[in-house]
Specification:
mainly alpha
Length: 106
């Protein structure tokens, strides 16, 4: 079975449907089965997106992306400020495009 990724808007829609089912007296397991997600996924979504609207989720994703970019900038500045501390790293672990970022290996 191929894993399906849901957009934040789809998640909000599914959470609203699940809340409606729960108010009708269905269990969490039944609601999860009807939405074709696991109970764990439903709980995780409720913790992460509970009470949010679709516009809020878009803003959350934008802020998370911006936060990641800022973290990279801070890391780049730190490396530029202290270049000799990182000189002991093996060069085989660094890519050609970004010599200061290690390559992820499986």
């Amino acid at each position: 079975m191929k894993r399906q990724r849901n957009s934040p808007e789809q998640i909000i829609r599914k959470l609203r449907t699940a809340e409606q089912m729960l108010s009708e007296g269905k269990t969490i397991g039944e609601a999860a089965k009807a939405l074709e997600v696991s109970e764990q996924t439903l709980h995780r979504w409720r913790n992460q997106y509970g009470g949010m609207k679709a516009a809020d989720t878009k803003r959350l994703k934008e802020l998370e992306r911006e936060n990641g970019q800022l973290k990279c900038l801070v890391a780049d500045k730190e490396l530029a400020a202290h270049p000799f501390q990182h000189a002991a790293c093996p060069t085989a672990l660094f890519s050609d495009e970004a010599p200061h970022r290690p390559v992820r290996r499986p």
